[in-house]
Specification:
alpha/beta, Rossmann fold, 5 helices, 20% strand
Length: 119
């Protein structure tokens, strides 16, 4: 069973996504971005979903994730604002897919197998 790591500072969102996806994947949910790095670099994650607005710190973290494991698919979810426009253009080269809130869980769920098949 493939392993999906979910990161969000919002515990409720982590829990909700975990409950939704656990039928199909082994899901690890965390509110600690540093633990995501450990899970990726130790090859415990097959795909990562990150719920955070792109900024310079997140761009740096995602680049680190890809340096550790070039093949790890990363999905980013956040509320789109004009403020995030500039950061998004930089992070688009690093992450594999972006979904804006409110996102459709079916859309994300249908994208995961496609991303996992390319990793």
């Amino acid at each position: 069973m493939k392993r999906v790591v979910i990161y969000s500072p919002d515990f409720s969102l982590c829990y909700s996504l975990m409950m939704y996806l656990q039928t199909y994947y082994r899901v690890i949910a965390t509110t600690d971005i540093e633990s995501v790095s450990n899970l990726i670099c130790n090859k415990i994650a097959d795909l990562v979903i990150i719920d955070a607005e792109p900024d310079s710190e997140l761009i740096s973290k995602c680049a680190k994730f890809k340096n550790c494991r070039r093949d790890i698919p990363i999905i980013l979810t956040y509320v789109y604002t004009n403020k995030s426009k500039e950061s998004e253009s930089k992070i688009k080269d690093i992450v594999d897919e972006i979904f804006y809130k409110p996102f459709d869980l079916n859309e994300i769920t249908s994208k995961i197998p496609e991303l996992l098949s390319h990793s």
